[in-house]
Amino acid sequence: MQEVNQRQLWNTVDGWFEGLLVEADPAFEHALSASRQAGLPDINVSPSQGKFLHLLARMCGARSILEIGTLGGYSTIWLARALPEDGRLVTLELSSAFAQVARTNIENAGLADKVEIVVGQATDTLSGLSIEEPFDFIFIDADKENNPHYLTWALRLSCPGTVIVADNVVRQGSILDDDSESADVKGMRGFCEMVAAEPRLSSTVLQTVGSKGWDGMAIVLVTH
Ligand code: SAH
Ligand code: DHB
Ligand code: MG
Question: Under 8 Å CB-to-CB from 180, ≥6 apart: which residues?
Fold first, then answer.
């Protein structure tokens, strides 16, 4: 009972700040309702988290963004809206059906010319990206089990100053379960340990509560 009330309160607080600070934009409403209608899982970032990603990308002056895990393009739209006129965003998605929903949502947001969706296993499609053109900002939000691979690729595709953000690193505290059978938990723990061991990276994790429950994002800076 206590737990339910707590979650309701997180939700209400999230809603209050959204009303106050997250400007209404029909492109986001449309993307969420089209995703829901197409039967996509409701696992996009929250509006406040989307705005957080958007602000981070602007704060670091990102001109090129890589996203791993598109879903219906909700976080993609937040990130692409942070780009300058000549900016570009590449987003990787396994499901061609999800990618189709995202494509329509991104077009509807007027961002088709800035965003490229690449369909396939990200572990494969990442190798098709050019290391000659490093990304300024990388958002990792696909299958958590592959996060160690995604970090390796993120390092290859980055330069000093690149910001890497990984979603869902806390998952109701399951990150602490060091003998978990879950491939997702193993992947997340492996990712965090790799970040810690890599001298080129400086990082912290912010735990979050809100409309997405209890979770967190890793914020990682490529220092050299
Ligand atoms: N970033 C989105 C949510 C992504 S959900 C948002 O916040 O709006 C995770 C997505 O990763 C799903 O769409 C799933 O199909 C995709 N995915 C899962 N495994 C993948 C893989 N191996 N390669 C690429 N995408 C993958
Ligand atoms: C889930 C949530 C996410 O934010 C995500 O990227 C993938 C999965 C989930 O709740 O299952
Ligand atoms: Mg996520």
Answer: 174, 186, 189
CA distance 74 to 102: 8
How remote is the CA of residue 43 from the centroid of ligand 3, in Å? 6
Query: Which ligand 2 atom is the nearest neighbour of the CA of 141?
Result: 6
* Minimum CA distance residue for ligand 2 atom 6: 141
142 lines ligand 1 (CB under 6 A): yes
Q: Please tell me the number of the ligand nearest to residue 174's CA.
A: 2
Q: What are the residue ranges of helices labelled H in the chain?
A: 2-21, 26-37, 47-59, 74-80, 96-108, 122-125, 147-156, 183-197
Per the structure block, which two tokens stand in for 131?
A: 């290391």
pLDDT digits (tens, 9 = 90+) for 198-215: 999 999 999 999 999 999
Nearest to 146 by CA among 64, 57, 69: 69
Q: Residue 156, Cβ neighbours under 10 Å: how many?
A: 12
pTM passes above 0.90: yes
Q: Compute the distance from residue 68 Cα to the ligand 1 centre, in Å.
A: 7
- Type of residue at 68: I
